[in-house]
């Protein structure tokens, strides 16, 4: 029996207690009167009945007010205190009961806070001892994670079902770059914890490689690894090496057959190292084609030259006309061979141009290396002027240093300069590296000639030209003269590296009130996906927590989604690296009221992908997971209205943290996301951005799962049924 029903029963009992004695007394008096006395009693009592009734009503109202005050102070106050105590025991250790209400309740609150403080002191001491005991294990774990993050190859660890258990950042970037079409958008990577490797690689190849490894283990191989080459959906070539993960200890060995000797170790999973070999394969194929054409083409030419030479040698008295004819054959074939060799050299030069990738580096480090190279090879004095020490550039340092050395050599050779100065500055996304000297000017024709000739310095030869190096960086080089200072300089324009400090920041977001209706006419409990087991524990499921920002609050009236943010939860962990964060072009105006809330302007969404491009990516991101959102009905309504146009349907179950909060804390007045986060001790940052709200909602949900378990709500089915019974779930607009 809940508190409201008990309150109504108490009101009825109070009414009987207030009016019962008056009515019983009147009935007794009337019954004891003689027959002749009734008229006189009526004359006396009847005029006084209204006064007695009024006094009874006043007394009843007064008693009711007293009872309501006592109920609010004691019953409801104690219920709220109980919910706060559960928070202190579970989700938010720092939360404390506010000492409010009558003296007895305040004293109880202080005693509860004292007990909570004692519990916190004990837990802090226990945690300190656990932290000290596990420090070495954590250090080894961090060292392993650091090593994996620095590996040049992508590493993925899977169990035997093909579920990804671990991966490094290189693997994530590799598969994100290989994603086909819209999957390469922000957050649209195909890789993620708990996902299937078979969505990326062919199942048959994985199975075949595992079988080969088992056979090698059975034969006693010391290195039971398997290698294979596969293709992705976008046609990229990958080289994969598979190594088994064997169960440690004696229990990890499968029993051997009679007479087979030792037991065979049991495979529990495998480690894949992935390398994209598409470009190297294309370069090798091109090289093979060039060599093949060179050898095949040269074989016939050499045969013709050899035959002509032998004929001339065997016939020294040959007629002049015929001799000239054979000499012409030799000349033509030699010319053809020379042209073929030139084409081959050009082909290898083009391959050389793409050998070194651009890397992020400090501009001052590049100039320092160029100074050392010029001073050592040319014996030319170098100095620096204005240098932006914080400027990062994207550069092929080897070829750029060669280019600067080449320019210095030409200036020294043709203009006899004695000193070269360096300057480094930036403007927007362009970096300027200036080579400054005092002396005669350089004509435009001279610079143009230098740009096109191979960069040879002393005994060093290089097939690259200055123009090749500049084009490789997507930059430019120009000559300028400072007549007032009697100086001139070459300016090399280079791309600025996209360092974190230079990323365009979004407009500052502020905590504001709720911008959307808390309920909408969409049945969250009408899901059609039967692949997710409703009787699995909440702690065992994978979730996609998402949020949307929209042009307005009326999807049926044409409002559109302008941003989707999502993050995954696996094994009770919020995976902040596995996200979707995508702006969407709504192809309609944004309302000024909405811009004031979410801070997304028309310029930010103009040219972004449309909803029909983004939804398939988001649908793939959410596959095989339960959807979670705060006030989910609002977001799901937008997705539902796009089903017919896009063919994308989200059929999995949906959990709403708004409804779950009403299940966990039915006596709290507010279930807004900020209020829930405050109760659970979660710091709210980045509200009213889709990804920021998804992060907060995910943290809230992770802390709700143990609170639901304390109430006996363990499975997904139980959570859905409990949410459906809340008052908020029954409200429709």
Which sheet architecture does the biggest sheet show? 5 strands, antiparallel
CATH architecture of the largest domain: 2-Layer Sandwich
Strand segment tally: 19
Radius of gyration: 41 Å
CATH class of the largest domain: Alpha Beta
The parts where pLDDT drops under 50 for at least 5 residues are 180-184, 499-514
Mean pLDDT: 78
Question: DSSP helix count?
Answer: 22
Number of domains: 5
* Shape label: elongated
Beta-strand percentage range: 15-25%
Straight-line N-to-C gap: 31 Å
Under CATH, the homologous superfamily of the largest domain reads: Ribonuclease H-like superfamily/Ribonuclease H
- The CATH topology of the largest domain corresponds to Nucleotidyltransferase, domain 5
Helix content: 40-55%
User: Which structural category fits the helices and strands?
Assistant: alpha+beta
Give your account of this protein's structure.
The protein has 733 residues and is of the alpha+beta class. It folds into five domains: 3-131, no CATH class; 139-247 and 266-276, PAS domain (Beta-Lactamase); 281-353, Helix Hairpins (Orthogonal Bundle), CATH 1.10.287; 359-500, Heat Shock Protein 90, CATH 3.30.565; 538-730, Nucleotidyltransferase, domain 5. Helices cover 48% and strands 17% of the residues. The chain has 22 helices and 19 strands. A five-stranded antiparallel sheet has the order 2-1-7-4-3, with helices on both faces. Strand 3 (226-231) and strand 4 (237-246) form a beta hairpin. Helix 3 (49-89) packs parallel to helix 4, helix 8 (278-314) runs antiparallel to helix 9 (320-353) and helix 10 (363-378) packs across helix 11. The radius of gyration is 41 Å and the shape is elongated. The two termini are 31 Å apart. The model is unreliable at 180-184 and 499-514 (pLDDT under 50).
């Amino acid at each position: 029996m809940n508190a409201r029903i008990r309150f109504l029963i108490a009101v009825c009992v109070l009414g009987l207690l207030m009016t019962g004695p008056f009515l019983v007394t009147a009935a007794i008096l009337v019954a004891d009167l003689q027959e002749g006395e009734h008229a006189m009693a009526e004359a006396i009592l009847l005029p006084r009945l209204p006064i007695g009734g009024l006094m009874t009503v006043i007394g009843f109202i007064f008693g009711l007010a007293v009872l309501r005050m006592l109920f609010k102070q004691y019953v409801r106050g104690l219920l709220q205190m109980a919910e706060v105590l559960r928070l202190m025991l579970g989700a938010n250790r720092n939360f404390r009961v506010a000492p409010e209400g009558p003296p007895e309740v305040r004293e109880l609150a202080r005693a509860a806070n004292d007990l909570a403080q004692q519990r916190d002191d004990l837990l802090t001491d226990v945690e300190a001892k656990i932290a000290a005991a596990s420090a070495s294990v954590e250090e080894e774990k961090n060292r392993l994670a650091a090593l994996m993050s620095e590996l040049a190859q992508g590493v993925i660890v899977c169990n035997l079902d093909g579920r990804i258990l671990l991966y490094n950042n290189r693997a994530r970037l590799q598969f994100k770059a290989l994603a086909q079409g819209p999957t390469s958008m922000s957050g649209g990577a195909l890789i993620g914890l708990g996902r299937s490797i078979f969505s990326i690689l062919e199942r048959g190849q994985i199975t075949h490689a595992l079988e080969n490894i088992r056979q090698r283990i059975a034969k006693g191989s010391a290195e039971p690894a398997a290698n294979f080459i596969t293709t992705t959906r976008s046609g990229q070539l990958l080289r994969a090496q598979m190594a088994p993960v064997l169960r440690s200890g004696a229990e990890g060995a499968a029993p051997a057959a009679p007479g087979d000797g030792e037991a065979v170790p049991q495979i529990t999973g495998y480690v894949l190292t992935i390398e994209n070999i598409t470009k190297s394969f294309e370069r090798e194929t091109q090289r093979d084609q060039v060599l093949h054409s060179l050898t095949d083409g040269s074989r016939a030419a050499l045969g013709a030259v050899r035959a002509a030479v032998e004929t001339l040698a065997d016939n020294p008295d040959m007629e002049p006309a015929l001799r000239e004819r054979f000499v012409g054959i030799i000349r033509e074939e030699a010319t053809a061979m020379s042209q073929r060799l030139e084409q081959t050299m050009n082909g290898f030069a083009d391959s050389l141009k793409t050998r070194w990738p651009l890397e992020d580096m400090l501009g001052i480090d590049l100039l320092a290396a160029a100074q050392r190279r010029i001073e050592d090879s040319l014996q030319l004095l170098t100095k620096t002027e204005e240098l932006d020490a914080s400027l990062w550039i994207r550069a092929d340092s080897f070829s750029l240093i060669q280019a600067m050395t080449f320019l210095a050599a030409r200036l020294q050779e043709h203009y006899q300069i004695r000193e070269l100065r360096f300057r480094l500055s930036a403007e927007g996304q362009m970096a300027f590296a200036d080579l400054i000297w005092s002396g005669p000017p350089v004509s435009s024709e001279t610079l143009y000639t230098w740009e096109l000739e191979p960069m040879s310095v002393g005994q060093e030869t290089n097939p690259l030209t200055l123009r090749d190096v500049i084009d490789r960086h997507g930059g430019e080089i120009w000559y300028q003269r400072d007549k007032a200072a009697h100086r001139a300089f070459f300016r090399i324009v280079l791309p600025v590296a996209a360092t974190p400090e230079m990323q365009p920041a979004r407009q500052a977001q502020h905590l504001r009130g709720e911008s959307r209706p808390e309920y909408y006419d969409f049945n969250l409990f009408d899901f059609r996906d039967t692949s997710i087991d409703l009787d699995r524990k909440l702690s065992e499921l994978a979730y996609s927590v998402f949020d949307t920002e929209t042009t307005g609050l009326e999807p049926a009236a044409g409002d559109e989604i302008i941003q989707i943010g999502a993050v995954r939860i696996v094994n009770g962990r919020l995976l902040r690296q596995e996200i979707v964060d995508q702006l969407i072009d709504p192809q309609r105006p944004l309302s000024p009221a909405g811009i004031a809330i979410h801070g997304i302007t028309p310029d930010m969404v103009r040219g972004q992908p449309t909803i029909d491009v983004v939804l398939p990516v988001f649908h793939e991101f959410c596959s095989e997971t339960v959807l979670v959102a705060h006030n989910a009905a609002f977001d799901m309504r937008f997705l539902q209205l796009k089903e017919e146009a896009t063919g994308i349907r989200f059929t999995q179950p949906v959990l709403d943290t708004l409804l779950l909060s009403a299940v966990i804390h039915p006596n709290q007045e507010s279930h807004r996301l900020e209020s829930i986060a405050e109760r659970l001790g979660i710091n709210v940052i980045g509200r009213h951005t889709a990804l920021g709200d998804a992060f907060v909602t995910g943290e809230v949900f992770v802390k709700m799962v143990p609170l639901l378990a304390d109430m006996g709500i363990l499975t997904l089915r139980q959570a859905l049924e409990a949410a459906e019974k809340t008052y908020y779930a029954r409200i429709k607009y």
